[in-house]
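Re: the multi-chain job from yesterday

Posting the exact lines I submitted so nobody has to dig through the queue logs.
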Amino acid sequence: MAAHAHTVKRYKGLMDWLTTVDHKKIGILYLIAGFFFFLIGGLEAILIRIQLARPMQNVVGEETFNQLLTMHGTTMIFLAAMPMLFALMNAVIPLQIGARDVAFPFLNSLGFWTFFFGGVLLNLSWFAGAVPDAGWTAYATLSGPTYNPGHGIDYYVIGLQIAGIGTLLGGINFMATIINMRAPGLSFMRLPMFTWAIFITSALIVFAFPVLTVGLVALMFDRLFQANFFEPGTGGNSVLWEHIFWVFGHPEVYILILPAFGVISDVVSTFSRKRLFGYSSMVFATVLIAFLGFMVWAHHMFTTGLGPVANGLFSIATMLIAVPTGVKIFNWLFTLWGGSIRFTTASMFAIGFIPTFVMGGVTGVMLASAPADFQYHDSYFVVAHFHYVIVGGLIFGIFAGLHYWWPKMFGRMLNEGLGKLTFWTFFIGFHLTFFVQHFLGLLGMPRRVATYLPYQGFDTMNLISTIGAFLMGIGTIVFLINVFTTWAKPRNATGDAWEDGRTLEWSIPSPPPEYNFKQTPLVRGYDAWWKEKMEGKTEMIPAEPVGSIHMPSPSILPLIMSIGLFIAGFGFMYNQLIVAGIGLAITFGCMLLRSVFDDHGFHIEPEDQDKGVHV
Amino acid sequence: MNRRRVTKRLLPLLAGFALLLSACGREDLSTLNPQGPVAETQFDLMKLSIGIMALVVVVVFAICIYVLIRFRRRPGDTSIPKQVEGNHKLEIIWTVIPLALLLVLGVPTIQHVFGLAKDYSKDKEALQVKVTAHQYWWEFEYKDLGITTAQELIVPTGKKIMFEMTGADVKHSFWIPSIGGKMDTNPGTTNKMYLEFPKEGVFRGKCAELCGPSHAYMDFKAKAVSADSFERWVSAMKAPAKMPEDVEIAKAFEAKCLLCHAIGQENQGSAPNLTGIGDRQTIGGILYNSDVVADPQPGDKPAAQNLHDWIKDPQQYKPDNKMPNAAENGLTEEELTAIAKYLADYKLDYQSSGK
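And the result, structure tokens for all chains:
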């Protein structure tokens, strides 16, 4: 037992949260940070809508408007949506596969802190007075040094690079976790649909994010060191940036939506008390969507002038994605068919997702037709389309997932009355905001305009849209109220909080103890927990005897490494190479420490395992 | 679940309402009100795809509503529904039917992808126009005719107009919604696209790609005129430039305006060519001239007033544009008024039917 004789390292209070490598706590950190950025992005959206409520208003100036639209898009995608997905991934995946943690707990913590400091750096641009203003797509040459000489785009480039490290680490980590850490008996074709979705998403992250990194590095070199990747005046090619951005950007869309598909699959099947309809076709559809997702980037560039051959090919490839997506939609509907549907906030968001996402999906097919896209492209029609899939798809999915797994994460049931109020205000507000935008685009309103002239037929619909945005804001506030009032109450959630739980996470207490499973469970089929319940059992069959449980040690190093990158980022941005060197030295110093000093973690002995477990 | 059903019923109603409200939009602006064969082709494709997609939406909504009503859990119901694994027949049906629907949309898509990309740049019958997009104005060069103009594209009806497009600084996008879809103007590369204007009239053009603070104000006009009028316009444009009659004003104009702008076709400056600016619908693309446009709206001012306001402080109307204000440019109020009047009166008088 000599190798086991390591001291137990534990911290309390704030230090516990700064040093934690526990996936459940990191999930909560992701949720808090992601939701905080969601509120910032939402505030930016409200300001955008106030500015556009009436024609020729000047609530915020044109320059501020461009900053708002850029930061709204960037924040919502990279700093709100993805972290909230990572929150669900962290909170749920190890539990769903019967694991005690992720494959690389240290990396998991590092991933969170790099994301967090990247996001903070990006948002500090508001205080520095130099805010990115070239759109979240940052098309060259508008984002280049010639036409954007300030530091605004530097914040975008460096903030996203640091945050991107976190995402890439997360992708690698969850891929390794799902491949290696499944409980005995949990073969791939028995994985819960959410786990499948995250597995495929992680693969997409691993292939897509390096492309973004390369693009950002090239743009950074253009801006900081006068390289000429995207500057046509000196031999560069501005269209190259578009290709790089969308080779990353389109898979990114599926990185966002596939996890939502996974959430919907789990929620729909739980609350209709039915096995997911067509499980294997669901898996196949997910893989196919991910594969095709890499083949369609140029449909964002139909009007860039790639010529009819490219436009034709990318049109057809894009349309093909509709087929596996349609398979999913019908599988969900037929999971509900014949079921016993219970209407909770989670299931209402999931069911509201289905028609809403279909509306976003069909406009996607319309956009795929290149000649017609010449009219839709860069108009409000596109704005309506991607908000239908990202808000109506992804955000509904996140809300469904949060309400569904909240008791598992926090041990408390969210209030259903407030939850339903959240759903109805958000759902109605959403359709009010974005439905009319389809028509605004078709009537000739380009996107990303700071204002519009009167007498063009845009006024009424823009006003409706703004009213809807406020309703969505109210829905979000109701959700926050729900969270805080629930927080003030004692823990009340049972292990199988919704009673109809099907997957492994519902077989353990809410919230789970730090080691998740006292004994690794034996999985005997798809919907492992449901299967045991149907056979009259009240707990999983263990695959191992009770024994001492090995745990990773907490560490402050990930936080310090991320702070090092944060400092280095500022150094590069303001051309203070000494500062940059200090920052990098901190990061590499931490890596050295981590390499030189072994930390084998510690063990929780059987007699300590029941301490503080909520039953 | 009544509320849910009501919402679902409201959606198509809302759609109808929105359509009614807009009545397909302005004839000179809306993609739903096409005024040329290119926009018509695109509109036909839009109608086809909307039709197919509406069918899909109706089917999904119908199943969804049925399921939600029929299979909701009754209070106290603890029964376990049958755990269905799947159904091969159904799964094949909802794979094959969408494929067939996509084929219906895919074939005309491919046909028009190639049809609308036809190159008329070697066609002697087609009018060749080079479009250069600047922050935040449009330059139109008629290469074969040796004419350059700005902000207002003049084209003859009944001819194919072949555009060659590029961006002078950042990426913009050239879009006349009621005539045809858009094409980007990339800095450093050239794109081609043709359009046709079968009807005389003025059509609104927009920049569709974020290009800086004044992106929203980067409008232009496309004016289609008869072949005869077009001929007259060409000769008027090529005629020697008309300078202000007052010598002092002419001096000031030359020293303070013509450093960047140009009149006539002798030299082209870095700023919009002003020849015949008094004929144009707008100043700066967004200030409508009440004495020129066919349908003046409340708030529109005469061209002389718009020019005066614009020259006095261009940044107020288009922030970040390159034109200095009158004070920086050393223009006195007298010079300013006189120049505005001279420009407003600078008309080419080429249309047989007056304006």
